[in-house]
Amino acid sequence: MIEIFTTGGTIDKVYFDANSEFEIGDSPVAELLAESNIRDGFSVTGLMRKDSLEMKDEDREAVRAAVSRCSAERVLITHGTDTMPDTARALLSVRDKTIVLTGAMQPARMRRSDAVFNIGFAWAAVKLLPHGVYIAMNGEVFEAGSVRKNLKAQRFERT
């Protein structure tokens, strides 16, 4: 069983109309997995609905505590991309679990989003990787503590 925790971020954003800004809505992660014909073997728990730029140390501690408490050995976390490396570092103290964080550069509800691919890629990564903390984005896996988001290039890279 894979435990999936959602925290918000771009992947969960909803755009209502031309006069609105993006807001974080219900996570579409189960729907995204269903598009890949994955309908069981996981549980989804919403931890928060925050843009990652709004996440504070106490939010990262809440994520770490939830991951530590859960009985699953394999954990997938959807997260905003801007501070994903910070949360991954905060999870390094969790032992005996494979933890993979992923997200999207465009909301999952947009036609040209990378969300479906990233969720599927992260699903494979969390099933195959050894214990540790990782970020899976756009076809690459990075170890926590050795990755950063390149804002200009809009991609993750090793540090």
Automatic annotation (TrEMBL):
Q: Which residues bind substrate?
A: S52, T81, D82
| List of catalytic residues | T10 (o-isoaspartyl threonine intermediate)
Q: Which Pfam families match?
A: Asparaginase
- SUPFAM superfamilies noted in UniProt: Glutaminase/Asparaginase
Regions that span the bilayer: none
Q: Which InterPro entries match?
A: Asp/glu_Ase-like_sf, Asparaginase/glutaminase-like, L-asparaginase_N, L-asparaginase_N_sf
Q: Tell me which residues make up the L-asparaginase N-terminal domain.
A: 2-150
Q: What's a Gene Ontology MF term here?
A: asparaginase activity
Full protein name: Asparaginase
Q: What is the lineage of its organism?
A: Bacteria, Pseudomonadati, Pseudomonadota, Gammaproteobacteria, Pseudomonadales
